[in-house]
Amino acid sequence: MSSSIKLPKFCNHCGKAFIAQKTTTKYCGHKCNSAAYKKAKREEKVNAEFKNQQSKIVSASPVVATETLSTPIAGNHINLRDKEFLSVAETAQLVGASRWTIQRMIKDNRLPASKFGSRTIIKRTSIDNLFN
Fold this sequence. Notes:
Helices cover about 45% and strands about 20% of the residues.
């Protein structure tokens, strides 16, 4: 059933003005409708995953809390607390400081480190001794 109504509206996705023939029309065309649908579905997935992660954190045991300090390496998770030698980035993640702060501490000889090729390696015991 065709309508002779002509309603000036603005597209909910792109914001362009268009003439709608129904009162329920929200988008200027199929392309904007599809894009808005895809965006809504993507947001649903993100929100569902966010709620899933929140529920894990709320009911977290100490095991889950240590999983947050894991670094993915080639699909595996290695716990930073179990490694004997750490890179500057891993040390920064473990301590909760920036890489630059760790580099400054190494330069000021407050944190002993060794060069392994071009990488700077920090012993786990020296990090533990920082706070003792």
